[in-house]
Amino acid sequence: MLNLDRATDAAATPRATRGGPARNAGAAAPVGPGVDMTESSPVEVHVWSDVACPWCFIGKRRFESGVRQFGGKVALEYHSYELAPDTPVDFEGSEVEFLAAHKGLPESQVTPVLGHLTELAAAEGLSYDFSAVRHTKTVLAHQAIHHAKAEGKQLELVERLFHAYFEEGRHLGHADELAMLAAEVGLDPDDVRRVLADGTYAQAVQADIDLAREIGIAGVPFYVIGRYGVSGAQSPEVFATALARAVEDAASEVSVVDGATDEPVR
Amino acid sequence: MSATAGGGDATEVGRTRQQLARRLEVVGDEDAGLCVDGVCVIPSTVGRAATASRSRPVLAVAGDGAAVEGPEDRG
Fold first, then answer.
1. Angle of helix A5-17 relative to helix A54-70, nearest 10 degrees?
2. In A, which residues are within 8 Å of B21 by CB distance?
3. How confident is the model at residue A165 (pLDDT cuts 50, 70, 90)?
4. Which residues lie closer than 8 Å to A79 by C-beta, 6 or more apart?
5. Is the pTM of this model over 0.80?
6. Interface A-B: count of C-beta contacts within 8 A
7. Above 90 in pLDDT, residue A178?
8. What is the distance of C-alpha A153 from the center of its chain?
9. Which residues, in sequence order, are CB contacts of B48 under 8 Å at separation 6+?
10. Which of A23, A77, A130, A197 is 20 to 30 A removed from A14 (C-alpha atoms)?
């Protein structure tokens, strides 16, 4: 089980300042009538995302805000999605040039759009620098993220790679660069180089991509929260509501299963 | 849950697939920002707001918020 790093920490803060009875680390406030997550499991959230997706990083921040509003505990798992699989590993040129060359979009339209995205990112506390972005194929980055998941460091590496790509202009298409970044979140860089060279997680990445296709995901970010699909970088309120509904749904399902009692089973 | 850790644990992959492939109820604003096929959409509503305040042109890409279909939509 993975904990939501920043969001979970932040979600714990309001509980600590309420001054009420001490709760254990897994405790959460009631989120609706008849629903109490005090001893329940975290809400499982699956997100398909790509480190080269600007809306995904923005969406990550908004999701984290949504978790803070929700106030409960969340277990988040990232899944691979290659936004632009036709991207070469070593594309020589800017983001604008890539979109113009590979997507046929006029530079006169792309430039202001990237400027606008930069402003939207700034509103979330992010410092996008599209002039420095090193456009590259992200399949190795996804493999590194799978390795990090196996090592219990997935969320840390996802955050580090987003920051590296959009704010630092780091090249995420090369194993050595990925290994250095992975080392910063506590992974063994030699292990990272080895699994990337061996393709240890290539099948896992493809399985994620296949699953995305199977359930109809055609754009990212895409969150699966219980039975709810949340498409795009939605507002924190949307995420908070979906999380609360997922808790209510789970409580209802348990009540139905335990039909001998009128009380929800906790 | 680590459904695809390692080469992909078959049991966990299967469980995740079973959980996720069921019908999803897509919620939220249809105009949320989304990246599709390498192109990132500035939703029309955000674009209108930006245009009104900053006179910035906005890239129009078809399929805002409608790029995701539920399993029931795929026949």
1. 20
2. 211, 214-215
3. very high
4. A46, A47, A48, A49, A208, A211, A212, B4
5. no
6. 170
7. yes
8. 13
9. B58
10. A77
